[in-house]
Amino acid sequence: MLTDVIAALATPPGRSGLALVRVSGSGAHEVARRVLTRFRAEPWRTARLSPAVHPTRRELLDEALYVTYRAPASYTGEDMVEISTHGGLLVPAEVLGALHAAGARQAVAGEFTRRAVVNGKLDLLQAEAVADLIDATAPAQRRAALGQLDRGLSARIGGLREQVLQLEALVSYEIDFPEEDGGPVPPERIAEAIAAVESALSRLIGTAGEGERLREGALAVIAGRPNAGKSSLFNALLGSERAIVTHVPGTTRDAIEAPATCGGFPFRLIDTAGLRESGDAVERIGIEVSLRYLAAADVVIFCAEAGRALTEEEQGFLAGVEAPLVRVRTKADLAEPSRAAQGDEVVVSVQTGEGLAALRARLAELAFTTLAGRGDVEPLITRERHRDALERALLEVRGFRCARDEGFEGAVAATHLRAAVAALEDVIGVVTAEDVLELVFATFCVGK
Ligand SMILES: Nc1nc2c(ncn2[C@@H]2O[C@H](COP(=O)(O)OP(=O)(O)OP(=O)(O)O)[C@@H](O)[C@H]2O)c(=O)[nH]1
Ligand SMILES: [Mg+2]
Questions:
Q1: Tell me, what CATH number does 65's domain have?
Q2: What is the pLDDT of residues 85-131, one digit of tens each?
């Protein structure tokens, strides 16, 4: 296991008041001592001031604040030093350079958290939660990440693992005492236990749709005829003039994507080219792109001006939409109020701001129905990695049930349960293979 001393900036380079440089590994304190002239390791976890100098040139680089940690009581589980320097481009980079000159190696992306996992400070789900928290742009993402960091998901999957182990214990009686009448454990009891595990696994797998959408942002595609006010609505939902708006129909030629938060949930909002028969080659391509996005949409926001009847084309389009749909009537400020709303339409005006809050709420409800309805009490799975492993576990439990039904020998059937336990352990990261670690930490930032 690698425990050499690593150092990296934990804050992004750029103009800022402060920056944080982290040092970790066995020998981290000695490395820091060569740079921080007034370094003292103890007392641990106490902030102290020291000049930071280059170890060979002896040039003064900064007046820094530092905190020491002793293994295993640190984020990585190793000896650590965290140095707060002044911010900006130069000072943090020079302090980091000094630490390298003093014997530290530049950390690779995610290496601090990876060491935390290897040293048992975090399980794999918690490490992923750290990355999710850093990437969070919407409050719902933060809540899910914090719940996962607090071992909410680990505990749930640990509970499932426990359930499978108990099932294994139940059937092991049968294996040990096969000739007893019906075995010491009534078969119904085993059947019930199998059903309970299967349904608990299915329930958790059922959270994957919204869970993965929560991590990635729901794809909300704005569609409608040219000039319907799509780009105006797109800009209003973003709160910035991102897309070009003109009175000329066919203004938007290409799909434009931007992240937006609606009702506390993350969305990837797409403005598209207006849908119509067009002789213009560029516009036609734009329309084809619109249709591709529509096919992938989690929610479709259909726009038509308030106060007019929908055309046959529009009605045909609406009939063909498969994703959840919000029907929006735009430019409410121009329409007569009595004719504005119909059925479940949301009437909006980007001029007055009318209806925008209602539209945001509706989008959150449609794209995150369960999450928006039930709050955050239940853990959910947010990655393909989790879903794959849980599906494997479910398949093995089903395999176990079938093997029993077909009268396989108990020990043979039980191998399925072993495999199910292994799949669940994979998700939590009880024993983690090197390639799984590589995959999980590939997307991390340096310094985390
Ligand atoms: N008064 C009023 N005008 C609006 C409103 N929304 C859009 N408009 C106007 O309607 C015209 C078309 O708006 P866009 O947002 O460019 O329409 P679009 O659907 O993106 O059009 P294409 O890109 O051509 O498909 C512009 O002149 C906007 O200023 C609104 O709420 N009130
Ligand atoms: Mg447009």
A1: 3.30.1360.120
A2: 999 999 999 999 999 999 999 999 999 999 999 999 999 999 999 99
pLDDT-derived band of residue 72, with 50, 70 and 90 as boundaries?
A: very high
Mean pLDDT of 60-73: 97
What does the pLDDT average to over 260-275? 93
Instruction: Specify the number of domains making up the chain.
Output: 3
Atom of ligand 1 nearest to the CA of 330: 31
Ligand 1 atom closest to the CA of 303, numbered from 1: 19
Which protein residue has the closest C-alpha to ligand 1 atom 10? 229
Q: How far is the CA of 84 from the centre of ligand 2 (A)?
A: 47
Quick: pLDDT tens for 293-316: 899 999 999 999 999 999 998 998
Please say if the pLDDT value at position 376 is more than 80: no
Burial class for 199, CB neighbours closer than 10 Å (0-12, 13-18, 19+)? exposed
Calculate how far, in angstroms, residue 291's C-alpha sits from the geometric centre of ligand 2. 15
Residue 368 Cα, ligand 1 centroid: separation in angstroms? 28
As a residue count, the chain comes to: 448
Domain, as residue range, for 224: 216-374
Pick left, alpha or beta for residue 91 (phi over 0 → left; psi -120 to 50 → alpha; otherwise beta). alpha
* Nearest-CA residue for atom 26 of ligand 1: 247
- Residues at CB less than 6 angstroms from ligand 1: 224, 226-232, 245-247, 249-252, 274, 330-331, 333-334, 349-351
Q: Which residue has the tokens 């190793």?
A: 78
> Which pLDDT belongs to residue 179?
57
Cis peptide upstream of residue 72 (ω within 30 degrees of 0): yes
CA of 241 to the centre of ligand 2 (A): 12
Q: Which atom of ligand 1 is nearest to 245's Cα?
A: 16
pLDDT, position 170: 84
Q: Tell me, yes or no, whether 282 and 416 share the same domain.
A: no
End-to-end CA distance of the chain: 19
Q: Which of 123, 147, 172 is the last residue of a domain?
A: 123
Distance 349 CA to ligand 1 centre (A): 10
Amino acid at site 369:
T
